[in-house]
From TrEMBL:
It comes from Mesorhizobium escarrei. This is ABC transporter permease. The lineage of its organism: Bacteria, Pseudomonadati, Pseudomonadota, Alphaproteobacteria, Hyphomicrobiales. It is a multi-pass membrane protein. It holds the Pfam family BPD_transp_2. The chain crosses the membrane at residues 12-31, 52-74, 86-102, 109-129, 141-160, 187-207, 236-257, 269-294. InterPro entries: ABC_transp_permease (IPR001851). Its main location: membrane.
Length: 347
């Protein structure tokens, strides 16, 4: 088991290294120094305490979305709709925040609770069709992203737009604010929520019978079914939980960072969280570090166009290369395991 874990970790590290090397080649092709670009990324992400706080701020939604993806992956469900669930959760939290005056503390918890419900409700339809008709959850969840983004845009522009403002809702009441950590940054207790979720999910998967059942459904569904596990129901519940955590990510972003909902308020965090979970092999604890990596890329890229001639879109290219590299090494590993199994059967 330890050898398998070491092989998996080394494979992911090699995949990231290959992606960075390929990214360096592309940077050279656009006439910029890869060393200068990567050093600028490091300074932009960790240059001082304000930049470190900014990196952690970017890490927070990626981490929570990554945990949402891990929950789905552990149960064999590929929830690509986390972006849409994040948007619905963010809007639901904002609605509670500006429309319902409540006491401090209760107001924040109520907004986060509705964000969780909104995320779960949004993924309920793809989860039902997956359980009832065995439809592909990848297609249904990724299509639901576009509907969620456009639906929240409609709500924001035509139903709840702040008078005289841009495409945004009225600001939430201060009683719904998620407490901050530092005075000089918007970093908030959402980071703590993400860390608790990641560690809690890892403990549940490792030490509870329900977590063991979910893992069995994800890794060997036929074996789990023979063992008495209701595979379809388990998959339905796993997708609901994954959507709920995705909705929570949106609530944290609204209550802790923007204090309102606006169009494009959290672009790409859901997809970044999914990539972080894949890079972590579906491990919630490892997702803490991969989310930090992508948070550093996001925050460090803000300095790229100031100090270098490279576009910050190079970060998107590096992320795409990481996906390709991780997918390639996973395919090679799977083929190797299959060939090893065939050799064992021959003997």
């Amino acid at each position: 088991m330890m050898n398998d874990r070491l092989r998996a970790v080394s494979g992911q590290i090699i995949a990231v290294a290959v992606a960075l090397i390929m990214g360096a080649i592309i940077i050279l092709m656009v006439g910029e120094s890869p060393v200068r670009v990567f050093m600028t990324l490091l300074r932009g992400a960790f240059g001082d305490q304000a930049k470190i706080a900014g990196t952690l701020l970017q890490t927070t939604p990626i981490l929570i979305c990554g945990v949402a993806a891990c929950v789905g992956l552990r149960g064999g469900m590929f929830n690509v709709g986390i972006e849409g669930q994040l948007f619905l959760g963010g809007f639901a939290a904002a609605w509670v925040g500006f429309a319902f005056p409540l006491p401090a503390g209760i107001h924040m918890l109520a907004a986060l609770a509705l964000a969780v419900v909104a995320g779960a409700a949004w993924v309920a339809i793809p989860a039902y069709f997956r359980a009832r008709y065995n439809t592909n959850e990848v297609v249904s969840t990724i299509l639901s992203n576009y509907v969620a983004v456009l639906l929240t845009s409609y709500f924001t522009i035509f139903l709840f737009k702040r008078p005289g403002g841009w495409s945004e809702t009225p600001p939430i009441l201060p009683t719904a604010y998620l407490p901050g950590i530092f005075d000089f940054s918007r970093l908030n207790w959402g980071l703590v929520i993400g860390l608790v979720l990641a560690i809690g999910a890892a403990l549940v998967f490792r030490y509870t019978s329900w977590g063991y059942g979910v893992t069995m459904v994800g890794s060997a569904p036929k074996f789990a079914e023979y063992g008495g596990v209701n595979v379809k129901w388990q998959g339905f519940v796993v997708l609901l939980l994954s959507g709920a955590v995705g909705g929570l990510a949106g609530g944290v972003e609204t209550l802790g960072v923007h204090h309102r909902f606006m169009e494009g308020f959290a672009p790409g965090f859901g997809f970044d969280g999914l990539i972080a979970a894949l890079l972590a092999n579906g491990s919630p604890v490892a997702t803490i570090f991969t989310a930090l990596f992508f948070g550093a890329l996001r925050n460090g890229s803000l300095l790229l166009e100031v100090d270098t001639g490279a576009s910050r879109e190079i970060i998107t290219v590096i992320q795409a290369l990481i996906i390709l590299s991780v997918s390639a090494q996973a395919l090679v590993r799977r083929r190797g395991d299959s060939q090893a199994g065939e050799r064992r059967w021959k003997f």
